[in-house]
Protein backbone atom coordinates (compact mmCIF):
# COMPACT_ATOMS: atom_id res chain seq x y z
CA UNK A 1 0.00 0.00 0.00
CA UNK A 2 1.27 3.46 -0.89
CA UNK A 3 0.23 6.93 0.22
CA UNK A 4 -0.79 9.84 -1.95
CA UNK A 5 -2.15 13.31 -1.27
CA UNK A 6 -4.34 13.48 -4.39
CA UNK A 7 -7.63 11.62 -4.68
CA UNK A 8 -8.13 9.69 -7.90
CA UNK A 9 -11.56 8.02 -8.25
CA UNK A 10 -10.04 5.42 -10.55
CA UNK A 11 -7.71 4.09 -7.85
CA UNK A 12 -9.36 2.18 -4.98
CA UNK A 13 -8.22 3.67 -1.69
CA UNK A 14 -8.99 4.57 1.89
CA UNK A 15 -8.06 7.77 3.72
CA UNK A 16 -6.02 8.35 6.86
CA UNK A 17 -5.38 12.06 7.30
CA UNK A 18 -3.53 13.51 5.49
CA UNK A 19 -3.10 10.73 2.92
CA UNK A 20 -5.11 8.61 0.54
CA UNK A 21 -3.79 5.09 0.96
CA UNK A 22 -4.02 3.10 -2.22
CA UNK A 23 -5.22 -0.47 -2.14
CA UNK A 24 -4.46 -3.27 -4.53
CA UNK A 25 -6.04 -2.39 -7.93
CA UNK A 26 -7.23 -5.97 -8.11
CA UNK A 27 -9.41 -5.33 -5.05
CA UNK A 28 -11.32 -2.51 -6.71
CA UNK A 29 -15.10 -2.64 -7.19
CA UNK A 30 -16.40 -0.85 -10.27
CA UNK A 31 -18.70 2.15 -9.67
CA UNK A 32 -21.35 2.88 -12.32
CA UNK A 33 -23.34 6.04 -13.00
CA UNK A 34 -27.02 5.17 -12.26
CA UNK A 35 -28.15 7.45 -15.11
CA UNK A 36 -25.92 6.08 -17.87
CA UNK A 37 -24.54 2.82 -16.42
CA UNK A 38 -21.07 4.00 -17.49
CA UNK A 39 -17.98 3.70 -15.31
CA UNK A 40 -17.30 6.44 -12.74
CA UNK A 41 -14.39 4.89 -10.88
CA UNK A 42 -13.36 2.11 -8.53
CA UNK A 43 -13.88 1.71 -4.80
CA UNK A 44 -12.14 -0.32 -2.14
CA UNK A 45 -13.54 -2.83 0.31
CA UNK A 46 -11.25 -2.26 3.30
CA UNK A 47 -9.74 -5.50 4.59
CA UNK A 48 -9.43 -6.50 8.24
CA UNK A 49 -5.71 -5.73 8.58
CA UNK A 50 -6.11 -2.25 7.11
CA UNK A 51 -9.14 -1.60 9.31
CA UNK A 52 -7.21 -2.50 12.45
CA UNK A 53 -4.43 -0.14 11.39
CA UNK A 54 -6.93 2.67 10.79
CA UNK A 55 -8.46 2.21 14.25
CA UNK A 56 -5.00 2.26 15.83
CA UNK A 57 -4.05 5.42 13.91
CA UNK A 58 -7.26 7.15 14.99
CA UNK A 59 -6.69 6.32 18.66
CA UNK A 60 -3.13 7.63 18.52
CA UNK A 61 -4.32 10.89 16.96
CA UNK A 62 -7.14 11.33 19.45
CA UNK A 63 -4.81 11.19 22.45
CA UNK A 64 -3.25 14.47 21.30
CA UNK A 65 -6.36 16.09 19.83
CA UNK A 66 -8.48 15.44 22.93
CA UNK A 67 -5.86 17.10 25.13
CA UNK A 68 -5.92 20.36 23.15
CA UNK A 69 -7.79 23.38 24.43
CA UNK A 70 -11.14 24.00 22.75
CA UNK A 71 -9.99 27.32 21.25
CA UNK A 72 -7.31 25.48 19.27
CA UNK A 73 -9.73 22.77 18.14
CA UNK A 74 -12.30 25.38 17.14
CA UNK A 75 -9.72 27.25 15.04
CA UNK A 76 -8.96 24.01 13.17
CA UNK A 77 -12.67 23.48 12.44
CA UNK A 78 -12.97 27.02 11.12
CA UNK A 79 -10.06 26.34 8.77
CA UNK A 80 -11.91 23.28 7.44
CA UNK A 81 -14.94 25.52 6.82
CA UNK A 82 -12.70 28.03 5.03
CA UNK A 83 -11.38 25.36 2.68
CA UNK A 84 -14.88 24.08 1.92
CA UNK A 85 -16.17 27.57 1.16
CA UNK A 86 -13.14 28.68 -0.85
CA UNK A 87 -12.78 25.59 -3.05
CA UNK A 88 -14.44 25.34 -6.46
CA UNK A 89 -17.46 23.06 -5.85
CA UNK A 90 -17.74 21.82 -9.45
CA UNK A 91 -15.36 18.80 -9.37
CA UNK A 92 -16.77 17.23 -6.21
CA UNK A 93 -20.38 18.12 -7.05
CA UNK A 94 -20.01 16.59 -10.51
CA UNK A 95 -18.54 13.43 -9.01
CA UNK A 96 -21.44 13.16 -6.54
CA UNK A 97 -23.99 13.57 -9.34
CA UNK A 98 -22.28 10.99 -11.52
CA UNK A 99 -21.96 8.52 -8.65
CA UNK A 100 -25.54 8.52 -7.31
CA UNK A 101 -27.63 10.53 -9.77
CA UNK A 102 -28.43 13.61 -7.70
CA UNK A 103 -29.22 16.66 -9.89
CA UNK A 104 -26.14 18.87 -10.06
CA UNK A 105 -27.77 21.92 -8.39
CA UNK A 106 -28.58 19.73 -5.40
CA UNK A 107 -25.03 18.40 -5.22
CA UNK A 108 -23.74 21.97 -5.09
CA UNK A 109 -26.43 22.87 -2.56
CA UNK A 110 -25.38 20.00 -0.30
CA UNK A 111 -21.77 21.10 -0.37
CA UNK A 112 -22.76 24.73 0.23
CA UNK A 113 -24.28 23.81 3.59
CA UNK A 114 -21.23 21.97 4.90
CA UNK A 115 -18.94 24.81 5.97
CA UNK A 116 -21.48 26.38 8.30
CA UNK A 117 -21.87 23.12 10.22
CA UNK A 118 -18.18 23.16 11.20
CA UNK A 119 -18.44 26.78 12.28
CA UNK A 120 -21.54 26.10 14.37
CA UNK A 121 -20.04 23.21 16.32
CA UNK A 122 -16.69 24.98 16.71
CA UNK A 123 -18.40 27.81 18.55
CA UNK A 124 -20.92 25.62 20.36
CA UNK A 125 -18.09 23.61 21.93
CA UNK A 126 -16.32 26.83 22.92
CA UNK A 127 -19.48 28.13 24.55
CA UNK A 128 -20.20 25.17 26.80
CA UNK A 129 -17.67 22.92 28.48
CA UNK A 130 -19.69 21.94 31.52
CA UNK A 131 -21.90 23.24 34.33
CA UNK A 132 -21.33 24.67 37.80
CA UNK A 133 -24.05 23.39 40.11
CA UNK A 134 -25.39 24.83 43.29
CA UNK A 135 -23.45 23.11 46.06
CA UNK A 136 -25.05 20.50 48.33
CA UNK A 137 -22.49 21.11 51.10
CA UNK A 138 -20.85 24.31 52.33
CA UNK A 139 -17.22 24.62 51.33
CA UNK A 140 -17.61 22.27 48.35
CA UNK A 141 -17.12 23.21 44.69
CA UNK A 142 -19.33 20.94 42.55
CA UNK A 143 -19.44 20.91 38.77
CA UNK A 144 -19.80 18.79 35.66
CA UNK A 145 -17.43 18.80 32.73
CA UNK A 146 -17.34 17.08 29.36
CA UNK A 147 -14.82 14.63 27.94
CA UNK A 148 -14.53 13.06 24.49
CA UNK A 149 -15.39 9.41 24.12
CA UNK A 150 -12.29 8.62 22.08
CA UNK A 151 -12.89 7.40 18.51
CA UNK A 152 -16.26 7.83 16.83
CA UNK A 153 -17.58 5.73 13.94
CA UNK A 154 -19.76 7.40 11.30
CA UNK A 155 -21.83 5.11 9.07
CA UNK A 156 -23.25 7.25 6.28
CA UNK A 157 -26.23 7.10 3.91
CA UNK A 158 -26.02 7.56 0.15
CA UNK A 159 -28.55 10.38 -0.23
CA UNK A 160 -26.75 13.20 1.62
CA UNK A 161 -23.32 11.67 2.21
CA UNK A 162 -21.40 14.93 2.57
CA UNK A 163 -23.84 16.92 4.67
CA UNK A 164 -24.63 14.15 7.13
CA UNK A 165 -20.89 13.43 7.37
CA UNK A 166 -20.47 17.04 8.47
CA UNK A 167 -23.39 16.92 10.93
CA UNK A 168 -21.74 14.19 12.96
CA UNK A 169 -18.01 14.54 12.21
CA UNK A 170 -17.97 18.28 13.01
CA UNK A 171 -19.71 17.63 16.34
CA UNK A 172 -17.40 14.75 17.18
CA UNK A 173 -14.22 16.67 16.35
CA UNK A 174 -15.44 19.66 18.35
CA UNK A 175 -15.98 17.34 21.32
CA UNK A 176 -12.37 16.11 21.05
CA UNK A 177 -12.80 12.75 19.31
CA UNK A 178 -11.08 11.20 16.32
CA UNK A 179 -13.42 10.08 13.54
CA UNK A 180 -13.63 7.04 11.25
CA UNK A 181 -16.08 7.38 8.38
CA UNK A 182 -17.67 4.36 6.70
CA UNK A 183 -19.25 5.76 3.53
CA UNK A 184 -22.30 4.35 1.82
CA UNK A 185 -21.24 1.95 -0.93
CA UNK A 186 -23.20 4.01 -3.46
CA UNK A 187 -21.38 7.28 -2.64
CA UNK A 188 -17.92 6.09 -1.64
CA UNK A 189 -16.07 8.15 -4.23
CA UNK A 190 -17.72 11.47 -3.36
CA UNK A 191 -17.13 10.82 0.34
CA UNK A 192 -13.47 10.10 -0.29
CA UNK A 193 -13.24 13.25 -2.41
CA UNK A 194 -14.54 15.24 0.57
CA UNK A 195 -11.72 13.87 2.73
CA UNK A 196 -9.33 16.32 1.08
CA UNK A 197 -10.76 19.03 3.34
CA UNK A 198 -9.29 17.20 6.37
CA UNK A 199 -5.76 16.95 4.98
CA UNK A 200 -4.35 19.59 7.35
CA UNK A 201 -5.63 17.92 10.49
CA UNK A 202 -3.25 15.87 12.67
CA UNK A 203 -2.26 12.54 11.15
CA UNK A 204 -4.92 9.88 11.62
CA UNK A 205 -7.50 12.18 13.20
CA UNK A 206 -10.07 11.67 10.41
CA UNK A 207 -10.14 8.41 8.45
CA UNK A 208 -12.37 6.93 5.78
CA UNK A 209 -12.73 3.15 5.50
CA UNK A 210 -14.81 2.22 2.43
CA UNK A 211 -16.56 -1.09 2.21
CA UNK A 212 -19.61 -3.22 2.78
CA UNK A 213 -21.64 -4.06 5.89
CA UNK A 214 -18.80 -6.21 7.23
CA UNK A 215 -16.57 -3.13 7.44
CA UNK A 216 -19.27 -1.32 9.44
CA UNK A 217 -19.67 -4.34 11.69
CA UNK A 218 -15.92 -4.50 12.24
CA UNK A 219 -15.78 -0.84 13.25
CA UNK A 220 -18.69 -1.23 15.69
CA UNK A 221 -17.17 -4.37 17.20
CA UNK A 222 -13.67 -2.94 17.55
CA UNK A 223 -12.80 -2.52 21.25
CA UNK A 224 -11.04 0.78 20.52
CA UNK A 225 -13.99 2.57 18.92
CA UNK A 226 -16.21 4.25 21.46
CA UNK A 227 -19.35 5.85 19.96
CA UNK A 228 -21.32 5.24 16.74
CA UNK A 229 -23.39 7.54 14.51
CA UNK A 230 -25.57 5.79 11.94
CA UNK A 231 -27.95 7.03 9.25
CA UNK A 232 -29.75 4.52 7.05
CA UNK A 233 -32.62 2.09 6.89
CA UNK A 234 -34.69 0.99 9.87
CA UNK A 235 -33.51 -2.61 9.51
CA UNK A 236 -29.84 -1.63 9.45
CA UNK A 237 -30.42 0.86 12.28
CA UNK A 238 -31.86 -1.89 14.49
CA UNK A 239 -28.84 -4.09 13.78
CA UNK A 240 -26.47 -1.23 14.65
CA UNK A 241 -28.38 -0.46 17.84
CA UNK A 242 -28.30 -4.09 18.96
CA UNK A 243 -24.59 -4.41 18.21
CA UNK A 244 -23.84 -1.24 20.18
CA UNK A 245 -26.06 -2.32 23.08
CA UNK A 246 -24.23 -5.63 23.28
CA UNK A 247 -21.00 -3.68 23.86
CA UNK A 248 -22.53 -0.90 25.99
CA UNK A 249 -21.37 1.48 23.26
CA UNK A 250 -23.40 4.70 22.88
CA UNK A 251 -24.93 5.40 19.49
CA UNK A 252 -26.98 7.93 17.55
CA UNK A 253 -29.32 6.31 15.03
CA UNK A 254 -31.34 8.11 12.35
CA UNK A 255 -33.30 5.31 10.74
CA UNK A 256 -35.64 6.92 8.25
CA UNK A 257 -39.37 6.55 8.06
CA UNK A 258 -42.53 7.09 6.08
CA UNK A 259 -43.40 10.72 6.69
CA UNK A 260 -46.98 11.99 6.58
CA UNK A 261 -48.19 15.26 5.05
CA UNK A 262 -51.57 16.70 5.99
CA UNK A 263 -53.43 19.00 3.59
CA UNK A 264 -56.03 20.81 5.68
CA UNK A 265 -59.29 22.31 4.44
CA UNK A 266 -57.58 25.62 5.30
CA UNK A 267 -54.49 24.88 3.21
CA UNK A 268 -53.26 27.49 0.73
CA UNK A 269 -53.75 25.17 -2.25
CA UNK A 270 -51.22 26.70 -4.64
CA UNK A 271 -48.50 26.75 -1.98
CA UNK A 272 -49.46 23.27 -0.77
CA UNK A 273 -49.31 21.78 -4.27
CA UNK A 274 -45.88 23.26 -4.98
CA UNK A 275 -44.61 22.31 -1.52
CA UNK A 276 -45.89 18.76 -1.86
CA UNK A 277 -44.02 18.36 -5.16
CA UNK A 278 -40.75 19.26 -3.48
CA UNK A 279 -41.46 17.28 -0.31
CA UNK A 280 -42.46 14.12 -2.18
CA UNK A 281 -40.11 14.18 -5.18
CA UNK A 282 -36.95 15.98 -4.04
CA UNK A 283 -33.95 13.75 -4.83
CA UNK A 284 -36.42 11.38 -6.52
CA UNK A 285 -38.01 10.76 -3.14
CA UNK A 286 -34.78 9.34 -1.73
CA UNK A 287 -34.83 11.44 1.43
CA UNK A 288 -35.57 10.07 4.87
CA UNK A 289 -37.99 12.96 5.47
CA UNK A 290 -39.76 12.72 2.10
CA UNK A 291 -43.53 13.12 2.30
CA UNK A 292 -44.71 9.63 1.34
CA UNK A 293 -48.17 9.46 2.93
CA UNK A 294 -50.47 12.39 2.09
CA UNK A 295 -53.72 12.82 4.03
CA UNK A 296 -56.02 15.26 2.27
CA UNK A 297 -59.26 16.52 3.81
CA UNK A 298 -62.27 15.52 1.70
CA UNK A 299 -63.48 19.11 1.23
CA UNK A 300 -60.45 20.09 -0.87
CA UNK A 301 -59.22 16.65 -1.97
CA UNK A 302 -60.05 16.84 -5.67
CA UNK A 303 -58.81 20.41 -6.09
CA UNK A 304 -55.53 19.60 -4.36
CA UNK A 305 -54.94 16.44 -6.41
CA UNK A 306 -55.54 18.38 -9.62
CA UNK A 307 -53.14 21.17 -8.62
CA UNK A 308 -50.57 18.65 -7.37
CA UNK A 309 -50.68 16.72 -10.65
CA UNK A 310 -50.32 19.94 -12.66
CA UNK A 311 -47.21 20.94 -10.73
CA UNK A 312 -45.78 17.43 -10.98
CA UNK A 313 -46.13 17.51 -14.78
CA UNK A 314 -43.69 20.44 -14.86
CA UNK A 315 -40.82 18.33 -13.53
CA UNK A 316 -38.04 17.35 -15.93
CA UNK A 317 -36.59 13.81 -15.77
CA UNK A 318 -33.08 12.93 -16.87
CA UNK A 319 -29.38 12.82 -16.14
CA UNK A 320 -28.48 14.94 -13.12
CA UNK A 321 -25.76 16.65 -15.13
CA UNK A 322 -28.42 17.94 -17.51
CA UNK A 323 -31.47 20.14 -16.95
CA UNK A 324 -33.61 17.96 -14.71
CA UNK A 325 -35.20 17.93 -11.28
CA UNK A 326 -35.72 14.16 -11.24
CA UNK A 327 -32.64 12.01 -11.65
CA UNK A 328 -32.36 8.22 -11.47
CA UNK A 329 -32.84 6.12 -8.39
CA UNK A 330 -29.60 4.98 -6.87
CA UNK A 331 -29.79 1.37 -8.07
CA UNK A 332 -31.83 -1.21 -9.94
CA UNK A 333 -32.81 -2.76 -6.61
CA UNK A 334 -34.19 0.57 -5.40
CA UNK A 335 -36.29 1.01 -8.52
CA UNK A 336 -37.61 -2.54 -8.34
CA UNK A 337 -38.79 -1.94 -4.77
CA UNK A 338 -40.56 1.31 -5.67
CA UNK A 339 -42.24 -0.18 -8.73
CA UNK A 340 -43.39 -3.18 -6.74
CA UNK A 341 -45.04 -1.05 -4.04
CA UNK A 342 -46.86 1.03 -6.67
CA UNK A 343 -48.10 -2.04 -8.54
CA UNK A 344 -49.29 -3.67 -5.31
CA UNK A 345 -51.25 -0.55 -4.39
CA UNK A 346 -52.88 -0.33 -7.82
CA UNK A 347 -53.81 -4.00 -7.70
CA UNK A 348 -55.40 -3.43 -4.28
CA UNK A 349 -57.65 -0.64 -5.54
CA UNK A 350 -55.56 2.53 -5.66
CA UNK A 351 -55.96 4.89 -8.61
CA UNK A 352 -53.07 6.14 -10.73
CA UNK A 353 -53.14 9.91 -11.28
CA UNK A 354 -49.79 10.15 -13.06
CA UNK A 355 -46.51 8.29 -13.45
CA UNK A 356 -46.05 4.77 -12.21
CA UNK A 357 -43.33 3.46 -14.48
CA UNK A 358 -40.14 4.00 -16.40
CA UNK A 359 -40.17 7.35 -18.25
CA UNK A 360 -40.42 7.04 -22.05
CA UNK A 361 -37.03 7.23 -23.72
CA UNK A 362 -35.09 6.56 -20.51
CA UNK A 363 -34.64 2.81 -20.64
CA UNK A 364 -30.96 3.09 -19.71
CA UNK A 365 -30.39 3.87 -16.04
CA UNK A 366 -32.63 3.50 -13.00
CA UNK A 367 -35.24 6.17 -13.73
CA UNK A 368 -38.80 6.17 -12.37
CA UNK A 369 -41.54 8.71 -13.09
CA UNK A 370 -42.83 11.02 -10.35
CA UNK A 371 -45.96 9.16 -9.36
CA UNK A 372 -49.22 10.16 -7.67
CA UNK A 373 -51.78 7.56 -6.60
CA UNK A 374 -55.08 8.17 -4.83
CA UNK A 375 -57.77 6.03 -3.17
CA UNK A 376 -55.06 4.61 -0.95
CA UNK A 377 -56.07 2.79 2.24
CA UNK A 378 -54.11 2.52 5.46
CA UNK A 379 -53.60 -1.25 5.13
CA UNK A 380 -51.66 -1.06 1.84
CA UNK A 381 -47.93 -1.84 1.96
CA UNK A 382 -47.11 1.54 0.43
CA UNK A 383 -48.57 3.17 3.57
CA UNK A 384 -46.63 0.98 5.97
CA UNK A 385 -43.16 0.77 4.41
CA UNK A 386 -40.53 3.33 3.54
CA UNK A 387 -40.90 3.63 -0.22
CA UNK A 388 -37.83 5.83 -0.81
CA UNK A 389 -38.81 6.78 -4.32
CA UNK A 390 -40.73 9.49 -6.23
CA UNK A 391 -44.20 8.32 -5.13
CA UNK A 392 -46.93 10.25 -3.33
CA UNK A 393 -49.73 8.05 -1.96
CA UNK A 394 -52.86 10.08 -1.16
CA UNK A 395 -55.50 9.05 1.35
CA UNK A 396 -58.79 10.98 1.53
CA UNK A 397 -59.79 11.85 5.14
CA UNK A 398 -62.95 13.26 6.75
CA UNK A 399 -61.36 16.14 8.63
CA UNK A 400 -58.18 17.41 10.26
CA UNK A 401 -58.56 15.23 13.35
CA UNK A 402 -58.95 12.13 11.18
CA UNK A 403 -55.74 13.09 9.34
CA UNK A 404 -53.77 13.44 12.58
CA UNK A 405 -54.97 10.06 13.80
CA UNK A 406 -54.02 8.24 10.58
CA UNK A 407 -50.70 10.06 10.36
CA UNK A 408 -49.79 8.72 13.80
CA UNK A 409 -50.80 5.13 12.97
CA UNK A 410 -47.28 4.24 11.89
CA UNK A 411 -44.29 2.59 13.52
CA UNK A 412 -42.20 5.49 12.19
CA UNK A 413 -41.92 9.02 13.50
CA UNK A 414 -39.17 10.99 11.77
CA UNK A 415 -40.87 14.07 10.30
CA UNK A 416 -44.38 15.28 9.50
CA UNK A 417 -45.68 18.16 7.38
CA UNK A 418 -48.87 20.20 7.47
CA UNK A 419 -50.31 22.83 5.16
CA UNK A 420 -52.85 25.11 6.81
CA UNK A 421 -53.60 28.80 7.40
CA UNK A 422 -55.49 28.01 10.60
CA UNK A 423 -53.34 28.82 13.64
CA UNK A 424 -55.24 26.43 15.88
CA UNK A 425 -54.62 23.56 13.44
CA UNK A 426 -50.94 24.46 13.18
CA UNK A 427 -50.50 24.45 16.95
CA UNK A 428 -52.61 21.31 17.33
CA UNK A 429 -50.47 19.50 14.77
CA UNK A 430 -47.23 20.59 16.42
CA UNK A 431 -48.44 19.09 19.70
CA UNK A 432 -50.16 15.91 18.52
CA UNK A 433 -48.05 14.63 15.61
CA UNK A 434 -45.79 11.79 16.79
CA UNK A 435 -42.61 12.83 15.04
CA UNK A 436 -39.25 14.29 15.88
CA UNK A 437 -39.81 17.20 13.49
CA UNK A 438 -42.97 19.00 12.38
CA UNK A 439 -43.10 21.46 9.49
CA UNK A 440 -46.04 23.78 8.89
CA UNK A 441 -46.20 25.29 5.39
CA UNK A 442 -42.47 24.74 4.76
CA UNK A 443 -41.39 21.06 4.66
CA UNK A 444 -37.90 19.55 4.85
CA UNK A 445 -36.19 22.55 6.47
CA UNK A 446 -33.39 21.88 8.96
CA UNK A 447 -31.44 24.18 11.26
CA UNK A 448 -27.96 23.58 12.71
CA UNK A 449 -29.18 24.95 16.04
CA UNK A 450 -32.21 22.63 16.33
CA UNK A 451 -32.21 18.85 16.95
CA UNK A 452 -32.70 16.49 13.98
CA UNK A 453 -33.96 12.97 14.61
CA UNK A 454 -36.97 10.73 14.99
CA UNK A 455 -39.40 9.12 17.39
CA UNK A 456 -40.46 5.48 17.57
CA UNK A 457 -38.70 3.25 15.00
CA UNK A 458 -37.18 6.25 13.26
CA UNK A 459 -34.23 6.61 15.54
CA UNK A 460 -32.45 7.11 18.84
CA UNK A 461 -30.67 10.32 19.81
CA UNK A 462 -30.26 13.54 17.87
CA UNK A 463 -27.99 15.19 15.32
CA UNK A 464 -27.36 18.95 15.20
CA UNK A 465 -27.94 21.46 18.03
CA UNK A 466 -26.43 21.10 21.50
CA UNK A 467 -27.93 17.62 21.66
CA UNK A 468 -25.92 16.66 18.57
CA UNK A 469 -22.73 17.82 20.31
CA UNK A 470 -23.62 16.04 23.55
CA UNK A 471 -23.95 12.77 21.61
CA UNK A 472 -20.16 12.77 21.17
CA UNK A 473 -19.06 13.74 24.67
CA UNK A 474 -19.51 12.17 28.09
CA UNK A 475 -19.97 14.00 31.32
CA UNK A 476 -18.12 13.77 34.60
CA UNK A 477 -19.28 15.05 37.98
CA UNK A 478 -16.49 16.63 40.04
CA UNK A 479 -16.66 17.56 43.74
CA UNK A 480 -13.78 19.50 45.30
CA UNK A 481 -13.70 20.46 48.98
CA UNK A 482 -11.06 23.19 49.13
CA UNK A 483 -10.92 23.06 52.94
CA UNK A 484 -10.84 19.37 53.89
CA UNK A 485 -12.76 18.44 57.03
CA UNK A 486 -14.43 15.41 58.56
CA UNK A 487 -18.08 15.21 57.52
CA UNK A 488 -20.81 14.36 60.03
CA UNK A 489 -22.22 11.56 57.82
CA UNK A 490 -18.94 9.61 57.59
CA UNK A 491 -18.37 6.30 59.36
CA UNK A 492 -18.67 5.40 62.17
CA UNK A 493 -22.26 6.51 62.78
CA UNK A 494 -23.29 7.89 66.21
CA UNK A 495 -24.98 5.27 68.43
CA UNK A 496 -28.26 7.19 68.56
CA UNK A 497 -28.63 6.91 64.79
CA UNK A 498 -29.37 3.17 65.10
CA UNK A 499 -32.90 1.87 65.49
CA UNK A 500 -32.43 0.34 68.97
CA UNK A 501 -31.21 3.73 70.26
CA UNK A 502 -34.11 5.72 68.91
CA UNK A 503 -33.00 5.96 65.27
CA UNK A 504 -31.73 8.73 63.04
CA UNK A 505 -34.18 11.58 62.44
CA UNK A 506 -34.83 13.30 59.12
Shape: globular
Number of helical regions:
15
Beta-strand portion reads 15-25%
Low-confidence stretches: none
Please indicate the count of domains.
2
What is the count of β-strands?
23
CATH topology of the largest domain: Aldehyde Dehydrogenase, Chain A, domain 1
Computed CA radius of gyration, to the nearest angstrom: 26 Å
**Backbone structural class:** alpha/beta
- Annotated CATH architecture of the largest domain: 3-Layer(aba) Sandwich
Q: What is the CATH level 1 assignment of the largest domain?
A: Alpha Beta
Order of adjacent strands in the largest pleated sheet? 1-3-2-10-9-8-11-12-22
User: How many strands, which pairing sense, and closed or not: the largest β-sheet?
Assistant: 9 strands, mixed
Q: How is the secondary structure organized here?
A:
Blueprint: E1 2-4, E2 13-16, E3 19-22, E4 29-32, E5 39-43, H1 48-65, H2 70-86, H3 90-100, H4 104-112, H5 114-127, E6 130-132, E7 140-148, E8 151-155, H6 161-175, E9 178-182, H7 188-194, E10 206-208, H8 213-221, E11 227-231, H9 234-246, E12 251-254, E13 259-263, H10 269-281, E14 291-297, H11 301-312, H12 332-347, E15 351-354, E16 371-374, E17 391-397, H13 400-408, E18 412-413, E19 415-419, H14 423-432, E20 437-440, E21 455-456, E22 459-460, H15 465-470, E23 473-481
Parallel strand pairs: 8-9, 8-11, 9-10, 11-12, 13-14, 13-19, 14-17, 16-17, 19-20
Antiparallel strand pairs: 1-3, 2-3, 2-10, 4-5, 6-7, 7-23, 12-22, 15-16, 18-21
